[in-house]
Every structure is written in C-alpha cells, then in structure tokens.
Amino acid sequence: MLEVLGRLARHRSGLAGGVLVLVFVLVGLLAPWLAPHDPLRGDLARTREDPSQEHWLGTDELGRDVLSRIIWGARLTLRVGLIAVAIGLLVGVPLGLVSGYVGGTFDLLAQRLVDVLLAFPGVLLAIMIVAIMGTGLENVMIAVGVVSIPTYARLVRGQVLALRSLPFVEAARALGQSQLLILLLHVLPNTLSPIIVQSTLQFATSILWAAGLSFLGLGAQAPAPEWGAMVATGKTYLRSAPHLVIFPGIVISVTVMALSLFGDALRDALDPRERLSEGGP
After folding, report:
1. What are 195-235's pLDDT values in tens digits?
2. Alpha helix stretches (DSSP H) within the chain
C-alpha cells in the first residue's frame, strides 16, 4: 500500500488530479455550508448580472446565484457518479466473475448479452433507456449505470480467465474449498486493482454523460442545480450573459479532467510492472 501511495505521489499530474477530485468531493459534501446563497431562490430584479462582489460568478436568468448553484450541483454530480458506478459494479463484476470462472453455456449466454449491450453506442443506449423510463436525474443514473455494466463484465471476465488456472487457485481447489469461496477469497481480490482504476475512469464518464443528457433535457429538471442543465439553460443567453455557460462548463471540464488524470495515475501506480521496473520484489 505504501509503495502504491509513493508511486502515486511521484505522478505529478495524477497528484494534481487527485487533489482536485478531493476538492470536488468536499464541495459536494459541504455544499449546505459552502454555498453563500440559496441555490433555488431568485431575485427577478437582478437577473443575468455579471460577476460582482456579492455574486462572485454572477446571477442566472431568474436572479439565482450561479456560484451557489454550481456548489450544490457538485452534490448532485457526486451522487450521479456514485450510483452509476455502483450499478456497474454490483451487476457487471459478479457477471464477469461467474462467466469467466464457470465458462460453458453460462459464459456463452452472458457474453452474448454483453455483446448486445456493446452493439449500441453508450450515449445512444443511455438515451434509449431514459426515453423508455422517463426523464429525470434518477433515471439518468440508472441508464448510465446500465451502460457501464458490459465494461465491468468484460474487464473482470478477462482477469478471471487469466487467474483461474494459476497455481494458487488450483491449490485452493485441491484443498477442497467450495467454488464460491475460491471466487470470493482468491479470485476476486486479485481483480480489485483494475476494477478500482476502471471505477475512477467510469466516474468521469458518468459525470460527462449525465451532464450531456441533462443538456438534452433528459436528465435533471428545473429548478435542480445540475451542471449540464445549467449549460442548457444558459446557452439561450450566450450573447448577453456568457457566464451562465462558461462557469458550469469549466467546472464540468475540470472535474472530468481531474478524474481522468487521477485514474491514469492510479492505473500506473497499481500496475505490477511498475514495481518490477523499480527493482521491487
């Protein structure tokens, strides 16, 4: 663990990304205390004001404080990412584990199901799911989570196929351990590194897709302070009040970039080849 943290600390871009991710999480958790104004309370006498000392990022078309809405939007975005990744983990990981370890007919059927999901572009599949279930942020979370299932299933299955014939798994079988215990105690722990890295990157993808679906009007509905919805509303006033698009757009970009940098650094830090290149055991 200390070796992983050491390699992560030497990865400058990844460290910067990790700091930004930590800031994003803290802002989301502490939104009620950090937001200077009520994100839903407007003042029609102060609509579309430029950034000022009272409203650091200006006000929107209803006179609501943009900074407060961005801060509260971090909480919504954090929830979207967590739930979407959780759905992918809870369904995709067990599917990949059993499919790769058991093989046979189950593996064949499971992989054909995964192929069907992968046949659709991710965003198109998410739009289709939301169209069936109805608009709303909760349905967007489910849709993005379902789209991530094939990625986890394929990733874990590939890891299990490489592990199931290794000596330590064969030894567990020879000792008479049940198949379930072998999967949970020996196979699953050795797949955690790529799962952790994929979850970090999937978190970034989930945020981006959720913002895109909200921009299309399929996600968060007014007056929810969601970043994609803020950009969608602000584009109407792009000439007269560009700050309504610029600031939430910058926040989305920086958050996704930070998660991507942190995910890349985490992948390098957890890669056993990095340890070998440093002369470790």
Report:
1. 988 999 899 999 989 898 988 888 888 888 999 999 999 99
2. 2-10, 12-29, 31-34, 66-102, 104-118, 122-133, 137-163, 167-174, 179-182, 192-215, 227-234, 243-270, 272-277
